[in-house]
Amino acid sequence: MEEVNKTVWVHFFGKKYQVPANFTIMGAMEWVGYQLRHGCGCRGGKCGACACLYRIDGKKGLHGCLACQTMVQEGMFVVMLPFFPLSSRSVDIRRGGSIQEIISQLYPEVYHCVGCNACSRACTQELNPMHMVAMVKQGRYLKCAEESLECVMCGVCASRCPAEISHPQVFQLVKRLAAMRLVPPSDHLEQARRDVESGKWNEAMDEIMAKSTEELKELYCQRNMARRTSERLR
Ligand code: SF4
Ligand code: SF4
Ligand code: FES
User: Fold this and answer.
1) For 41, what's the count of Cα atoms within 13 Å in the CB-facing half-sphere?
2) 54 has which bridge partners?
3) Which structural domain, as residue segments, surrounds residue 217?
4) What's the pLDDT tens digit per position in 154-178?
5) Same domain, yes or no, for 166 and 201?
6) Residue 76 and residue 108 in one domain
7) Structural domain tally of the chain?
């Protein structure tokens, strides 16, 4: 009970609020009355929509975090970054040229990284974007693709970068190029593609599309129960 009654003072967008200490930033924002139409998606740390920057009063350091995954702390000054203007450039990845050529033409700023580590210190997923950028420069594209799989594209790293690198977009391009050129073809994926094209799943899809919201919810819950049961039996 003591835990429930404990409160902390925080600042959201420059305004001071007293909020329950056991709330996430997102929960506390909604508790004091913000309606998060932007900056709120999955609520599960997956979509990257709720990126925030914060400081703790009297302490050094500007930190990045996800509002749905981070608890409020006493003296927290928080601002949400529901959108950060990343530089997104497009290319036909089936065109010729090496991966290195494509990246250096599209995102030459990658080669201007000064190794300051600001991006890694800010990463909301505790990834190491500075190392991932170094991997791109070294031509270790597969490794970079693997290491950036958990990137939620929140853009907080890019907001801190003096070289103006749009890390999530660079990593996305590396993942696509690596999947296309460096990863061996997958037989089961190819089979799945053929199944979709041949219409194998059309009837099942039509059935699902015809269901009401309530029926879909029930189906979804059954799916979770079936998965948990099969996990228990493993
Ligand atoms: S590397 Fe990805 S998850 Fe980490 S801060 Fe950058 S965009 Fe967000
Ligand atoms: S913030 Fe930019 S310049 Fe600094 S290490 Fe990261 S990528 Fe390099
Ligand atoms: S709402 Fe999706 S990561 Fe927070």
Assistant:
1) 14
2) 63, 78
3) 192-227
4) 999 999 999 999 999 999 999 999 9
5) no
6) no
7) 3
